[in-house]
């Protein structure tokens, strides 16, 4: 009797394990992020649809094996003191709560997309900038086999480099208290910014043959060669693996990612990070930081001079 029980118990444990995938969500951003999770229409639901993930923290979730859906991170969230509604400056899902409860990200947001246990028993995954970009995201498959099991993502901070006509900035009362007024917080897709069917791959441009990359999608693709830059960018942007667990890192440090990725072979011709872009970007970053420092020094000097003059007059 006991032995049968133990046998059945072990069997159910074993099958439960082979039916599930673990997802570890890691926040390497300097600020808190609020991951959002949206399950596909025919997908089994998840234990959570959104939660708070402080800087430096991680949370592991067990996903049903045939889950499909999207994961993203919301930034600069707060609760409106009068309406008591929760909302976020980027990636908001409009639920008014931390849980998204079946609603998706309002663009722009960097999306990690999954179809677990799809055709041929493979997991299909990608990182998409088709709905724009709000922060760097890295997806790493662990312990899988079959497929290429390559890491994918967008490791460069594109908010700084974003073309002006696509850029979303923090406004007064909307994130400006945290990141500063006018700081770029997201980068729209050309489809969202202009609504042109050529950019959206809609109407007369709704097939792979008629919808082509644009100057804007090329900007995303050059910075993040493995991420989806427009709707038909499948060939270089979809990755597969079987029976893997996944790590999703928000704001992965681009320089140390090789250590994390280990000796994993890099499938496809396209690199995970465009080193040229990263170099240019870090120079831009340093230059603007230096400019910021210079301005704050000038202001400090101005304040000292002003105080001295003021004191003299006072006397
Ligand atoms: C903040 O952004 C939301 C959504 O974009 C908007 O409805 C709201 O009016 C903004 N609040 C302020 C104070 O600008
Ligand atoms: C990397 O970025 C540079 C500069 O934007 C671009 O010329 C180059 O084609 C990019 N490389 C890839 C692999 O996209």
TrEMBL record:
<keyword id="KW-0732">Signal</keyword>
<dbReference type="InterPro" id="IPR001938">
    <property type="entry name" value="Thaumatin"/>
</dbReference>
<dbReference type="Pfam" id="PF00314">
    <property type="entry name" value="Thaumatin"/>
</dbReference>
<dbReference type="InterPro" id="IPR037176">
    <property type="entry name" value="Osmotin/thaumatin-like_sf"/>
</dbReference>
<keyword id="KW-0472">Membrane</keyword>
<keyword id="KW-0812">Transmembrane</keyword>
<protein>
    <recommendedName>
        <fullName>Thaumatin-like protein 1b</fullName>
    </recommendedName>
</protein>
<feature type="signal peptide">
    <location>
        <begin position="1"/>
        <end position="20"/>
    </location>
</feature>
<feature type="transmembrane region" description="Helical">
    <location>
        <begin position="290"/>
        <end position="311"/>
    </location>
</feature>
<keyword id="KW-1133">Transmembrane helix</keyword>
């Amino acid at each position: 009797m006991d032995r049968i029980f133990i046998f059945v118990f072990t069997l159910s444990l074993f099958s439960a394990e082979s039916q599930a995938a673990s997802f570890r969500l890691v926040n390497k951003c300097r600020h808190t992020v609020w991951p959002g999770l949206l399950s596909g229409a025919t997908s089994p639901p998840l234990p959570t649809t959104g939660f708070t993930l402080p800087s430096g923290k991680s949370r592991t979730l067990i996903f049903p094996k045939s889950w499909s859906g999207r994961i993203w991170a919301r930034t600069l969230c707060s609760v409106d003191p009068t309406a008591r509604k929760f909302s976020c400056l980027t990636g908001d899902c409009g639920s008014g709560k931390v849980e998204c409860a079946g609603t998706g990200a309002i663009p722009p947001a960097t999306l990690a997309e999954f179809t677990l246990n799809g055709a041929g028993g493979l997991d299909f995954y990608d990182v998409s900038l088709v709905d724009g970009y709000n922060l760097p995201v890295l997806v790493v498959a662990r312990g899988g086999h079959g497929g290429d099991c390559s890491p994918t993502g967008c490791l460069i901070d594109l908010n700084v480099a974003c073309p002006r006509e696509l850029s979303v900035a923090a406004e007064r009362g909307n994130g400006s208290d945290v990141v500063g007024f006018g700081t770029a917080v997201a980068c729209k897709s050309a489809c969202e910014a202009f609504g042109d069917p050529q950019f959206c791959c809609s109407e007369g441009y709704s097939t792979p043959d008629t919808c082509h990359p644009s100057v804007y999608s090329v900007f995303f693709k050059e910075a993040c060669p493995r991420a989806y830059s427009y709707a038909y960018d499948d060939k270089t942007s979809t990755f597969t693996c079987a029976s893997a667990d996944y790590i999703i890192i928000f704001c992965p440090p681009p320089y140390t990612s090789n250590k994390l990725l280990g000796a994993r072979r890099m499938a496809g011709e396209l690199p995970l990070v465009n080193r040229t872009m990263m170099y240019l970007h870090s120079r831009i970053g340093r230059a603007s930081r230096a400019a910021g420092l210079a301005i704050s020094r000038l202001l400090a000097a101005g304040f000292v001079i002003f105080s001295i003059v003021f004191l003299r007059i006072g006397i």
